[in-house]
Design goal:
four-stranded antiparallel beta sheet, 0% helix, mainly beta, 112 residues, 11 strands, seven-stranded mixed beta sheet
Amino acid sequence: QVQLVESGGGLVQPGGSLKLSCAASGLTFGSYAMGWYRQAPGKERELVATITSGSSTDYADSVKGRFTISRDNAKNTVYLQMNSLKPEDTAVYYCMMGYRNWGQGTQVTVSS
């Protein structure tokens, strides 16, 4: 059974940084694309960043240059380093594995 556990969310001031982590179990982590999506209140879930099994990355235009996705296959963990955070980054952030498995989400709130 696949389990994805996110951590690292919280409240941060505009311009600040957070690093999200997602620990995966139940599948061969290194074989799967991983990613982060987010959903703000009243909005649809949207892609933030993905990383393939070969570590190729892709980002939403809104986060390019500010967010960095990475993975550590030895630790079965994917990360999202978020810098220069803006109030519009406020959302629940979800970890994705293989485009079919999801974590429970972690809240990120950017506010002064």
